[in-house]
Specification:
The protein is α/β, with parallel strands linked by helices. It has two domains: 137 residues, Aspartate Aminotransferase, domain 1 (Alpha-Beta Complex), CATH 3.90.1150; 247 residues, Aspartate Aminotransferase, domain 2, CATH 3.40.640. 43% of the residues lie in helices and 12% in strands. The strands form three sheets. The chain has a seven-stranded mixed beta sheet, with helices on both faces. β5, α9 and β6 form a beta-alpha-beta unit. α6 packs across α11 and α13 packs parallel to α15. The longest helix has 19 residues. The protein is globular. The N and C termini lie far apart (54 Å). The relative contact order is 0.17.
């Protein structure tokens, strides 16, 4: 027999991927340059040149075994040290290599973090709007996903609703800042209030509720600001990171879990991640990619294009009458649709070769997401199609 759970998932494919596939097919008909594809969050800027140079240097200078042999089960020591030193420099927490576990991107980091601090049957709280893949990450670990309804005025945390969702069944809270899909950065005030509540409830329940912080967009922040680091505000935080966006390396699948050194169990959790890998077949990201990232640990690609694109879209959306919270980072913007049914709204947009993602699967019906990690020239051309769409369908 075959597994009915995964068979059932075939009928519930990612709407993002389905729209991306539609855009590709449409591009074959009219030329992809004429399809304004805002579906998939695939970084559009080139990988950092220093990363490519590091790869070349490694290939020229190291043996095949050193480059392509198995890395230790807990990760390449050079990579772990580079990550720990960088986090300590940037955020002032006493990270050591023993607090770092390399993973296959942020998804792999979340998968390990969830399993390290929960058991099947426990609840994990997420805040709408959320990345739709959180659902299979959480339920695939045998857990229940509990959703806190959104604060659509600012997309910060709705604390009244959060507190009502908390119970002794909740063992972890999963946040994403800067946020996919809203582009909102959680403020320091939000993180302090979240920490206060988690400390109070942990004391009440007699165990530590863990905060799992999904941070792949940490470096993409606008207006000269920086993203507050959640681990600074709560000791029982597992930081889940990916170099997919900062270095434009999504296909290399490289990230890590960083366990807060203030947690007495932090090193145990990292050692546990090695055992979780045994049960999931993870067994570390590619050895050569770990080594190359270690050499460019504090660098990023040129990410400025995302702020340029955001400003173009935000100004146009506002001028057309959309309700939209201005993103503080990422390469996503999250307007309210011009009708209650965002699925219908996005279907109508297809007639104008605008590929927009309805937000029902993000836990926020009535909204839609635009991933503006595309060339600025194409963003500018898309504005005419957006105006035509709105004027013909809604004016």
């Amino acid at each position: 027999m075959i597994n009915e759970t995964y068979k059932d998932m075939l009928s519930k494919k990612s709407v993002i991927r389905e729209l991306s596939e539609f855009a590709t097919k449409r591009g074959e008909e009219i030329g992809y340059d004429n399809v304004f594809d805002y579906s998939l969050g695939n970084p559009s800027v080139p990988a950092a040149k220093e990363f490519n140079e590091a790869m070349k240097e490694l290939i020229d200078s190291k043996s095949s075994m050193a480059l392509h042999g198995y890395s230790p089960s807990l990760g390449n020591p050079e990579f772990k040290k580079a990550v720990a030193d960088s986090l300590k420099r940037r955020f002032g927490l006493d990270y050591k290599p023993t607090h770092i576990f390399p993973t296959s991107g942020a998804a792999g980091a979340i998968a390990h973090a969830l399993r390290a601090v929960t058991k099947p049957g426990d609840e994990v709280i997420v805040f709408a709007p959320f990345f739709p893949e959180y659902n299979p990450y959480i339920t695939g670990a045998g857990l229940k996903m509990t959703v806190v309804e959104p604060d659509t005025k600012a997309f910060q945390i709705n604390f009244d609703k959060f507190v009502r969702k908390l119970s002794s069944n909740v063992k972890a809270v999963l946040i994403n800042t800067p946020s996919n899909p809203s582009g909102v950065v959680y403020s320091e005030e939000t993180l302090k209030e979240l920490s206060k509540i988690l400390k109070e409830k942990s004391k009440e329940y007699g165990f530590n509720i863990y905060l799992i912080s999904d941070e792949p967009y940490r470096e993409i922040v606008f207006d000269g600001k920086v993203c507050p680091y959640p681990s600074k505000y709560y000791d029982y935080t597992l930081s889940c990171y990916s170099f997919s966006k900062s270095l434009s390396l999504p296909g290399e699948r490289i990230g890590y879990v960083a366990a807060n050194p203030a947690d007495p169990d932090s090193e145990t959790i990292i050692n546990m991640c090695g055992q979780i890998s045994r049960g999931t077949g993870h067994n570390c990201p590619a050895s050569i990619i770990q080594q190359a990232c270690a050499k460019v640990i504090d660098l990023t690609s040129d990410l400025s294009v995302y702020e340029t694109n955001m400003n173009l879209l935000y100004d146009e959306l506002v001028s057309l009458g959309f309700e939209v919270v201005r993103p503080g980072g990422t390469f996503y913007i999250f307007p309210k649709a011009l009708e209650e049914d965002s699925v219908s709204f996005c279907k109508k947009a297809l007639k104008y070769d605008l590929i927009l993602v309805p937000a029902d699967s993000f836990g926020c019906p009535g909204y839609f997401r635009m991933a503006y990690c595309i060339d600025t020239e194409k963003v500018k051309r898309s504005l005419k199609a957006l105006r035509e769409f709105v004027n013909k369908e809604y004016k």
